[in-house]
Amino acid sequence: MQSTIVKDTVQTARRRFFDEGSLPEGLVAAPILRSWQRCATQGLNAEDKPRVEPLSAPELRLLHERNDLLRRITRPEMAALRAEARLTDSVVILTDNSGLVLDMVGNAEFAGRASRVALRPGVQWDEMAIGTNAIGTALVEKRPIGVHGSEHFFDPHRILTCAAAPIFGPRGELSGVLDMSGHASVRHVHALGLVRLAVEQVEHRLFERGFEDCTVLRFHQDAELVGTAQEAVLVFRDDRLVAANRRGLGFLKLDWSALDQTRLSELFEQPDRIGELGQLRTRTGEDFRGRIAAPEERSVRAVAVAPRASAEVEPFFGQATRAALARAIRLVDADVPVLVHGETGSGKEVFARRIHAGSARSAKPLVAINCAALPEGLIESELFGYEEGAFTGARRRGHEGLLRQADGGILFLDEIGDMPLVLQGRLLRALQDRQVVPLGGDKPVSVDFALLCATHRPLADLVSSGTFRSDLYFRIAQYVVELPPLRDHADRSALIDTLWDELGGRRAGVTLAPETLRRLAAHDWPGNFRQLVGTLRALLALAEPGEPLDASALPADIGMGDKPATRKEEVVPPRTANTLSALTREAMSEALAAHNGNVSRAARSLGIDRTTLYRRLLWRGAQS
Ligand SMILES: Nc1ncnc2c1ncn2[C@@H]1O[C@H](COP(=O)(O)OP(=O)(O)OP(=O)(O)O)[C@@H](O)[C@H]1O
Asked: Residue span of the signal peptide, if any (predicted)?
């Protein structure tokens, strides 16, 4: 009902703006209206088709190379949001600082729909080409923004609901944009919050390296937030401010123009202790709690106290998995291909990296390729390389291809079940002959790599249904490791305890209350380790040192399965969901009730297909 009213309001605003030429102030958010004005002033016409100029495959590869650091630094957040996106039929997108889409992960079905309106890697989503959209408008407005349905400038984008936040570097430079996009019929009310939090983590991590020779000041009014991603950070080289995060500037009422201009001594009174958490008083008389780390002393302390970066959680392996790892290492050393199978988030990639680290090839590269993430048209040139001038847009000096980059090391083909059939034959030949023929070339080049593959799909079934070649299957699956889903772990409490320590819970002086631990252990974690680690990280951010973390901090859908719902709750489901997945499930249940249980109609009203709705409802049924 509420969304119908919002929709009508936007339609009225559009009519006034586009047909009557008046400003519908108050009917849409001010940043949206500003964006419509900018687009109209630039001569964009809402009834035209947006101008899309996708990059060629080699250009996209170059773009990836140029943005390597950004892609690496955002990886943990992309992985965490990807799990959320898969469960909510949406996608997570990373762009460069001009809005060029670098990566898109999440729900494959929605990715297909998004691709039809050119929301895909290699397309620039800047406002001037694509009109009002979360990515482009966040870049212009330099702040997080949600753009929903008809708030988009161009008509075809009405199917989208998007939330984006710009990523700022330590010197205020725009580095990229993180975005979550889904279908406009399912309102992802938490998407903007999730994206903002993720960007805060990314921006905070940008301060971990590169300032070893500087004095770094970390502070907050709340002492407990010092040392977390919510702290304010100011960096001084020879007493001069050279880098900062937005919170640091905001607390002192400064902006980026203060860089290189302002001195530490102008901002703060002499701190009482260097290195220790103490009182900091600004020259204007405001008090903060914080810590100043001088250059030499900081580099020593950083090793001792810096929280582990999120990508580096020490994996938890049960006894059986440890034994499987030892066997897999021996097999890979003997050049026997190993296939790792497990549900999403069960740790296939983590396991593969451990195999590499323990193998005789550890000093050589592990080249990991996600076969599902590579656009189909790119896989061939990416894997096998191409000769100079092999096709229009090919790089002048050609490209050696990923198979050759793995020479001497290990080739890890992740999501191998998603490799298109046409390329499976070519891959098989390369694996059998240990030779690669680049596109546009005729001379085979010898390669030497060990092969690891992973998939969450039932490959044997794909073989039976004819979508995966049996000869390739037998080639890659000479030894299969099955990673168990979390719900099958015998002692989940011990596992959660260990991960909590790994994530820094004990170091931060926070424990999980017995009821919290019980509920976490009772949950069946469909997103496996990825979901569990993400939830524990969120809980850690909410925790108060010295106080056991109460079960009320848990997301609504965790640990409630074992509690009978009250009659009242069954009749009037309260809007308490505070995760995207819970919200989506709520929306699905509501749609189903509104259509008297007719799945097709409910699915249509949500803008998803029947199978997605069935799948999600079945998944829900399995949970409760
Ligand atoms: N054994 C483990 N112990 C602790 N954390 C783990 C473990 N395995 C995985 N994780 C966490 O889960 C996240 C997902 O792991 P990984 O990418 O290896 O899963 P995956 O099975 O390859 O998932 P997908 O099929 O979706 O690609 C990792 O980033 C890591 O934080």
From this structure: none
Residues 336 and 473 in one domain: yes
- Report how far residue 435's alpha carbon sits from residue 448's, in angstroms, rounded to the nearest whole number: 8
Residues 367-372 have a mean pLDDT of 82
Q: In terms of domains, do 377 and 430 share one? A: yes
- Please give the average per-residue pLDDT across 52-74, as a whole number: 84
Of the residues 482, 504, 536, the one at which a domain ends: 482
Burial of 615 (0-12, 13-18, 19+ CB in 10 A): middle
Spacing, Cα 254 to ligand 1 middle (Å):
40
Q: What is the average pLDDT value for the chain, to the nearest integer? A: 81
What is the 8-class DSSP label of residue 390?
S
- Closest-CA residue, ligand 1 atom 5, reads 315
- The set of protein residues with a Cβ atom below 6 angstroms from ligand 1 is 79, 313, 315-317, 342, 344-350, 456, 499, 529-530, 533
Domain extent, residue 469, equals: 319-482
> What spatial distance separates the first Cα and last Cα of the chain, rounded to whole Å?
28
Asked if ipTM goes beyond 0.85, one says yes
In this structure, which residue's CA is closest to atom 25 in ligand 1? 344
What's the structural domain count of the chain? 5
Cα 232–chain centre separation: 24
* Average pLDDT value for residue range 97-126: 91
Residue 104 and residue 52 in one domain: yes
